[in-house]
Amino acid sequence: MNNDPKSFPGLFGSMVFNEDTMKERLSPSSYRQWKKSVSDGTPLELSTANEIAVAMMQWAVEKGATHYTHWFQPMTGVTAEKHDSFIATSNDPEDKGRIILEFSGKELVRGESDASSFPSGGLRATFEARGYTAWDPTAFAFIKEGSLCIPTIFCSYSGHALDKKTPLLRSMDAVSREAVRILRLFGDTTTNRVIAQVGAEQEYFLLDKKLYSEREDLIMTGRTLFGAKQPRGQELDDHYYGAIRPRVAAYMQELDNELWKLGVLSKTKHNEVAPSQHEMAPIYSDANSACDQNQITMEIMKKVADRHGLVCLLHEKPFAGVNGSGKHDNWSLGTDTGKNLFKPGSTPRQNAQFLLFLTAFIKGVDEYQDMLRATVATPGNDHRLGAQEAPPAVVSIFLGSELSAVVDSIISETPMEALGKRTLDIGVDVMPPIPQDNTDRNRTSPMAFTGNKFEFRMPGASLSISGPNIALNTMMAHELMLFADELEKSEDFDRDVAALIKRELTAHRRIIFDGNGYDESWLAEAKRRGLSNFPTAVDALPAYIDEKNIRLFTDHSIYSREEVFARYNIHVENYTATIGIEARTMVDMIRKEILPAVSRYGTMLCEGLEKRRNLGLPSKYEAENARGNCLLSDCLHDACLKLEKDLREVPAAPEEAMRFCHDVIVPDMNECRSFSDELEMITGKEAWPFPTYSDLLFSEG
Ligand code: ADP
Ligand code: MG
Questions:
Q1: Cα–ligand 1 centroid distance for 281 (angstroms)
Q2: What is the pLDDT of residues 23-40, one digit of tens each?
Q3: Residues of CATH 3.10.20.70 domain(s) within the chain?
Q4: C-alpha neighbours within 13 Å on the C-beta side of residue 292
Q5: CB 342 within 8 A of CB 357
Q6: Does the C-beta of 410 come closer than 6 Å to ligand 1?
């Protein structure tokens, strides 16, 4: 195999201080200590940290790095970095003043950052504004643009988690602990750790950079706030998996190369449903790496686009009327011995174990459906969920006909066709085979079982996947804990497992839905089943501070009560901030671009109309359009005034402000948009002040 770090496949991971590199560059005892620290969480000794730091620095400098940064994920959902150079001055009197390179274990394991401007949701008073960062030794350091990036957790002085990584690591520990308890009951004595595994598919749009830069809305908000529907959308279904155009192909090639260097397992790429929309899927990994890698992916996607004269949009809904972008979070549990716990087995015992994990998942999703919905609640995703192209806002699970038949047979004790008319007897029977790649899968389900994993399809394209995965891991840890508590006391394990599975599947069957999630009738049916339906982020976010959900996270030490409230506050404030930016951008574009342009255009029509009339010539076009232009521009003007007035009245209290934005500002914005879009349709192309949907959506090739 080619090991040249400049070309494929040798370049893979060439910019990552990974296990192989550590093995090569550390003393055997330090390498062993690092391995131990990763597997059982023992803290690194300072002497080991020092050795790792020096090895890391030497490796990084050889690769051209000059700086290091503690790379962390504050609660904003993006990543943050503060760069320090390796340069230090020598203390040795003989070398006085000479520059040396220095990076110590202390700097590796604990950095300090005056992070008072990161949102803390009230967790940190200003007198203790400092945050501490500490290397997460389970994640590899990597070099990005001349800086050694050290994946880090971020805590306040008093130990509160200020980031998204700390609770994710806690949730991975919790689900591992409880899953191992269950495995022991099934006689598994070799598994030491169960790993939450995640593969996040990333959808995105590519636009021509020049056209993008002519639209203030795209620049300020990442989405179009105006735009009449273009004549051609995705009706022909010709873009999905279509041939990739040369400019995009060149982009994707470079993207892969950059991601591979950073150890991101970019695997598949293809065109998506909407014009200019694409997708990248990596090979799955542990949830922690998957989150880091998804953050890196989003960043690199944007950077590489810039080099190709393109802009990469990660907004959930950049364009009205065409598909938005999501991020499918594929989630499963695997053992450190390589077994997938959501893969149906081939013996009765394995089946019972599979069914027990499946039941825990079903129960968890049913009990914490509101929480799962809340983890994907953002103003951007409000345009997407339930819009007949993304899953509805109601959480349900798709199992597929084979597995649903198994579940039905267990619940109703009725015979199953596939078992030769017998009832499935858990722990005695072998289940009928469940095809892993069931191509006819239901694309409308928010949570689909796809053979050996669950695919959570609600997260929007720009979301950090930590939130959803923290919730999935914790909910699963909780259900497995309850099952283990019960079964560890059992005197007849096989009988009690079967009874438990039947009892819980019966209790939580309502969350299983294999039908069409886009169908209007599903909403009525979901209501009848008592499932929750939170159409918007404003409806969904309060689930964060619901007592049941707070208890879930505090019981398993994922979040403290304060940490839960901090996150809730940040989401609430983010909603208001986002809508505020969108609304002010809208006002700006109406006043500075749209109204002046349509006024000029209207004047031109009126002048033409007058001349024609004077000459006694027909003037229908001028007359009708001048009238439409004047009427609509008055309407737009009034709607804009109302939006401006309402913006001045946004209440100060965060929750009231969020509600007000949802109830008043968003409808005002819809009103403005509708008048502007009508105006666009009756205005000559030359006169319209910025690129239209047709220009933008067909611009990448
Ligand atoms: P599709 O979307 O067509 O189902 P795949 O099944 O190949 O495509 O996988 C989609 C994503 O799910 C990929 O990122 C893949 O790595 C990931 N994935 C596959 N198996 C698992 C698993 N057991 N756990 C978590 N993610 C997985
Ligand atoms: Mg998918």
A1: 8
A2: 999 999 999 999 988 887
A3: 16-163
A4: 26
A5: yes
A6: no
Residue nearest to atom 1 of ligand 1 (CA): 450
Cβ of 594 closer than 6 Å to ligand 1, yes or no, is no
- Contact in structure between 365 and 455 (CB atoms under 8 Å): no
Q: What is the pLDDT of residue 126?
A: 42
Residue pLDDT, tens place only, 133-145: 778 888 899 999 8
How, if at all, do strands 147-156 and 141-144 pair? antiparallel
Measured distance CA(450)–CA(342) in Å, rounded: 10
CA–CA distance, 259 with 13 (Å, rounded to integer): 9
- Assigned CATH class of 574-697: mainly alpha
147 ligand 1 Cβ < 6 A:
no
Ligand nearest to the CA of 281: 1
DSSP label at residue 244 = P
Choose which residue among 284, 328, 454, 469 to substitute to test ligand 1 binding: the one with the highest number of ligand atoms within 8 A of its C-beta: 284
201 Cβ closer than 6 Å to some ligand 1 atom: yes
Question: Measured between alpha carbons, how far is 650 from 660 in angstroms, rounded to an integer?
Answer: 6
Closest atom of ligand 1 to 330 CA is 26
Helix (H) or strand (E) holding 689: none
Pinpoint the residues of the chain covered by CATH 1.20.120.1560: 574-697
For residues 214 and 691, is the Cβ–Cβ distance under 8 A?
yes
Beta bridge partners, 133, equal 111, 154
Q: In sequence order, which residues have a C-beta less than 8 Å from that of residue 48 and are 6 or more positions away?
A: 29, 30, 33, 34, 105
Q: Which atom of ligand 1 is nearest to the CA of 199?
A: 14
DSSP 3-state of 338:
coil
Instruction: Give every residue of the chain whose pLDDT is below 50, as ranges.
Output: 125-128, 439-440
User: Model's pTM, two decimal places?
Assistant: 0.93
Give the pLDDT of residue 472: 98
CATH topology of domain 16-163: Ubiquitin-like (UB roll) (3.10.20)
Instruction: Tell me the best of 445, 449, 453 to mutate to test the pocket of ligand 1, counting ligand atoms within 8 Å of each CB and taking the most.
Output: 453
Cβ neighbours of residue 64 under 8 Å, at least 6 residues apart? 143, 146
User: 293 CB less than 6 Å from ligand 1?
Assistant: no
Architecture of domain 202-325: 2-Layer Sandwich (3.30)
Cβ(450) to ligand 1 under 6 A?
Answer: yes
Ligand 1 neighbour 330 (Cβ under 6 A): yes
Ligand 1 contact via 572 beta carbon (within 6 Å)? no
Long-range residue pairs from 356-359, CB within 8 A, at least 24 positions apart, any chain: 356/182, 356/483, 356/497, 356/500, 356/501, 357/179, 357/182, 357/333, 357/480, 358/403, 358/449, 359/483, 359/500, 359/501, 359/504, 359/505, 359/508
Measured CA to CA, the distance from residue 113 to residue 118 in angstroms comes to: 11
Of the residues 241, 283, 330, which should be mutated to test ligand 1's pocket, given the most ligand atoms within 8 Å of the CB?
330
Cα 388 to ligand 1 centroid, rounded to whole Å: 24
Supply 73's token pair: 């994920």
- CA 443 to ligand 2 centroid distance, Å: 8
The CA 18 to ligand 2 mean position distance, Å, reads 29
